[in-house]
Structures are given as C-alpha cells and as structure tokens.
Design goal:
The chain has three helices and 34 strands. With about 425 residues, it is mainly beta. The protein has two domains: about 150 residues, 3-Layer(aba) Sandwich (Rossmann fold); about 260 residues, 6 Propeller (Neuraminidase), CATH 2.120.10. Strands 5, 6, 7, 8, 9 and 10 form a six-stranded mixed beta sheet that branches. Strands 3-13-12-11-34 form a five-stranded antiparallel beta sheet, with no helix packed on it. A five-stranded antiparallel beta sheet has the order 4-33-32-31-30, with no helix packed on it. Strand 8 and strand 9 form a beta hairpin.
C-alpha cells in the first residue's frame, strides 16, 4: 500500500436565476498512482440522441486540463447525446449565437470558464442554455485543486445529463477493479471512464471480489495474502483495513447490506459453501442459507429485504432468492443448465447474471416485471456484472485475444465501451455508488 493521505473539498455555488441548487463535495484521497492506465474504445449509439454543442471554456492558461473536453467526452460516451461542433469558445456569461446554433441543429449549448485563484485552487463555472427558449437552464460554480478538475468536469456532465434526460448521471462515479501485471495484483480505483487510475492495495497473492460500501467510503474484498481467502474491509481515505471474515476454511464473496452495517459472505466453516451475514467487526454471525448444496455469490436487494444468490441445489447452478425475514427461498432462473452471479439493479427493476448459452458465457439482463431478457455481452467469456448507480449501465469483465479487459454496456446492449490496459490484465469490476 503506497500513498500519502490527502484532502480535497469542492464547493459549488449557485450563480444566477434558473441555475442549479448549490452542492458541497468532500472527498478524501489516499491512493498510489497506478501503472494500469486504461485505454477506452467506444461503439454503438443510443436510440434517441439530444443534439448539444459543448463550447471550449474560456480558461486561464494556468488551468492544467481542458474541462470542456472532459464534459464533451462524458456526454458522447453516454450515447444519449449527438455532439454539434461549437461556433467557438464561450464563457458562462456570454450570450450564445442562438440563430447560428439552431442552424447547426443544436438544441442546447454549454459555455464555461476556469481561472486560477490566489490560493492556487481553480474557479470553474458553466451554464447550459436552451437554444429554442434562448435562456440558461442550469449552471454552477466550483472551486477545486488541480488534481480534481476532472472530477469537476464529471460533476458538470452529471448536471447537464440530469437536466436534459431527467435521469441521474454516472459521470462522477468511480469503479474498482483488479489488475495483474508481472505476478503482482493491484486493487484499483478509477473514474467511471477508466481514467485517473489509482491503486488502493498491492499484493503478490490474488485479490478478488471488490465491493463498494453504500456510501462509497470503503471497499470489501477477498485477499489470499495469508494463503487462504479472507474477507477485508478497507477505508479508502486512510487505507485502514480490518479482517471481517477469517474463519476456518474459505471466506469469500462479500456483499454489502444497503445500510452499510453488515456484509453477506460465503463461508465453508460448516462444510459446504453457505451464505452468512456478519457485522463489520466480525461479530454477530448469522447463517442465511441452509442446504446440502453449494450456495454462493450473494447480492442484497436494494431494499435489503432479500438476497439473490447462486446455488446448485436443483442439480445445476441457478439463481435463487431468499427472503431474510422468513427464509423462504425461490428459484429464479430455469432456462439452461448454468446461470450464475445474480446482480440486481439499484432501482430494483432489472437483474443481471451470467448464463451459459451454446457453450458461451454471456451477461444477460432480465426485466423483473415482464420477464424479458436481453443478452448484452458477446465475448463468450464474460463474467462479474455490476450495475451503475442509475441502473442504465453494466460493467463486466471479458477475455479477448488472451487479454482480460472490462466492458461498460448500456442495459439495453446498444452502447459499449471497452476499458483495457496495455500493460496488464484487468478483471473483477465493481461500479461504485453515486457520490453524496
């Protein structure tokens, strides 16, 4: 573990009529820089796209990054927007060329500014304009240190996305994943697009199953550093960690309860793999499943009332759901002989899992109300699906050409982006929660 503690805070201020409610962000950063920087390849488009022009911000030469480029990249990769070439740079206080923008087909335009302050931080401002109504519809101002200007760009993208689509954006979320290079394993944290990769843990032994706490401040994971699987919880701002499950036999597959006070884990302490619930201090162990088969891969429902899991109690690996209050258990999947790794969407409408079909392992998304299914992957060796906080995207791992990489795909399968590293294999993805 290599890093020095640091602290950053950003304050967003309302800057005029019809602008967004101000928000405050406090984030602690305590990671080492990773060697597993990511390459991104995007394919596919959304069914309906909003035409928008992102003008270059009027920026102080001392601003180290192009914040408008971060916003442009976010919105383009989302698939929900069609980018219209800007007329030219535009600040947040300028009057847009309404007629010229409409002639280019832009329904909306974004302008902004970025200047360095006396305290060496940066003041960043933006406004989103409706070209038909010829007025500003949302905007904010942020103050941030240089290392966090990309985060400000993502926050701007989130505000634009929500204002124009009515849904929360994922742009300021983070992902976790494991990389392997030269026999070393790294537990990494990155922006949603694979940029800004930082390492939270390095080990000569495997690290698997990272899972974000509901508030995004901690990661649970399984480490083999003691030559057996042990479940840890690590605070990301201090790197302090504790052993939560280190019982006789195997300790694996941690899953956070929605309230962040306990984990579901898989233990072999009584023989076969069974699912338990345990407090973060390693106490209050409670057995959830009781079968003579293998029960594994738990995931809490968003309301915390039940747990989805994988079991071979019916003769082949299938998805089941157990109600925590009663222990009532129901089988969920029936098609095929292999359906594993259930992951419910945060909004409770969808369920993803890995299904073997014609000898290929594919990620499937099921609508829980209608029962309809969509195969969203095509690699054939796909695993470890994880939903985004707004339930619109999935992240999973795949193998292509002998190399492991990550795929982010929309829940309808239309848009896909591959996140790969030229120097290492990347696997075991987990999409973090929306920031407060």
């Amino acid at each position: 573990m290599l890093a020095k503690p640091g602290f950053w805070s950003t304050v967003a201020r309302a800057i005029g009529v019809s602008l967004s409610i101000p928000l405050a962000i406090g984030v602690a950063a305590c990671y080492s820089e990773s060697h597993a920087q990511m390459r991104i390849d995007v394919s596919g488009v959304g069914g309906s796209q909003i035409p928008i022009s992102i003008a270059p911000f009027i920026a102080d030469p001392k601003v180290p990054i192009d914040i408008s480029a971060v916003v442009r990249s976010d919105l383009e990769r989302s698939g929900a927007f069609r980018l219209i070439a800007p007329i030219g740079p535009m600040s947040d206080t300028a009057t847009p060329d309404w007629a010229g923008l409409r002639a280019r087909g832009a329904d909306a335009v974004v302008g902004g500014s970025a200047v360095r302050l006396a305290n060496q931080s940066f003041d960043v401002r933006f406004r989103l304009y409706d070209t038909a109504e010829t007025k500003a519809v949302v905007g904010s101002a942020f103050e941030a240190g240089a290392p966090f200007l990309r985060t400000v760009g993502h926050r701007i993208s989130d505000q634009i996305y929500e204002r124009l689509t009515g849904e929360k954006g994922n742009f300021s979320t983070r992902i976790a994943f494991v990389s392997k290079e030269s026999g070393r394993y790294r537990l990494n944290i990155a922006d949603w697009d694979g940029e800004n990769v930082q390492t939270a843990l390095t080990s000569a032994e495997p690290i698997i199953s990272p899972r974000w706490s509901p508030d995004g401040s901690r990661l649970a994971y399984v480490s083999f550093e003691s030559r057996k699987p042990v479940v840890y919880v690590q605070e990301l701002d201090t790197q302090k960690r504790i052993k939560v499950a280190d019982f006789k036999g195997s300790n694996s597959a941690p899953a956070w309860a929605p309230d962040g006070r306990s984990l579901a884990v898989v233990l072999t302490t009584d023989g076969l793999s069974q699912i338990y619930q345990i407090g973060l201090d390693g106490n209050n162990l409670r057995r959830i499943t009781r079968s003579s088969s293998i029960d594994t891969e738990p995931a809490f429902s968003s309301d915390g009332q039940s747990i989805w899991f994988t079991s071979d109690r019916g003769g082949s690996p299938q998805v089941y759901r157990v109600v925590l209050s009663s222990g009532e258990t129901q089988r969920v999947t029936f098609g095929g002989t292999y359906n594993v790794t259930p992951r419910p969407s945060p909004d409770g409408r969808l369920l993803s899992y890995v299904s073997r079909r014609d000898g290929r392992f594919l990620v499937v998304v099921r609508d829980l109300s209608s029962g309809s299914e969509t195969v969203v992957s095509d690699g054939g060796r796909d695993e470890s699906p994880s939903f985004s906080p707004n339930s619109r995207w999935l992240l999973y791992s795949t193998v292509n050409g002998g190399r492991e990489s990550l795929i982010a795909v929309t829940a309808d399968g239309r848009i896909r982006q591959r996140l790969s590293s030229p120097a290492s294999d990347v696997r075991e993805p987990a999409w973090g929660p929306a920031p407060n």
